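Example 3.2
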Amino acid sequence: MKASSLSKKLEAYYFTIKQNRWHWLFQLFCRILLAYAFIVAGMVKILGERFASGLSVIHPMGAYLEALHHTGYYYTFIGYAQVTAGVLLLIPSTVLMGALLYLPIIVNIWILSYAVRFVGSYVTSPLMVLANLYILAWHYDKLRYILPFNRYSKEVSLAKPDKYSLKFPYLFAGGVLAIMVFFVLFSQFGHEVMPQNSLESCQKQFVGTENEAAGFTFCECIHVQGGSLDDCLEGFENSKLNSTPSI
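Structure, written as tokens:
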């Protein structure tokens, strides 16, 4: 009984969101940005160019992208999938299809970015995942028919309101801003060590710190020796331990 009551309250809240002009503008904004990002990235692959070509091939992300570039038509296939998802997001009647195609691709990019600590998409990829989820939530009235729910209304899609509400969703806007700030701060302070995209930028984070020598060794491990991120991080931790004076 409680679950049913909660479900009704959530649906009622969802109906108010669907009738709010600011939420409509926000989902449109998300669609355009996500579409632009994937169409640009996808065209690079379709044209046969290596994505992030300025990144060294011995960098953890650079090595992955270099190997991916040499997978032939698989690389091109990813490009077509990204462009297709982007175009579908721009067409009102195919937005949901585009968001469903977009989700597994962008989640994979997010996990990859975090796995190798790639600064190029360390902030943007999780925000793109959340933006994609918001688009899916906006189309919950259609999406619920493929979700394992026992109860749903007979209407497949909600009718467009005659007049949108202009009440500004301050709480929602504050939540969006807080999430963006969180990921920006996490990208800056979430890890003690980041490989960065070049030897110089990597070494810069250690200049004047107590771990400068260990940090420089880590950067050389990544950008000169081409070591894996895990091995270089292990070496960094060992260097810190060895440089710590005994009491």
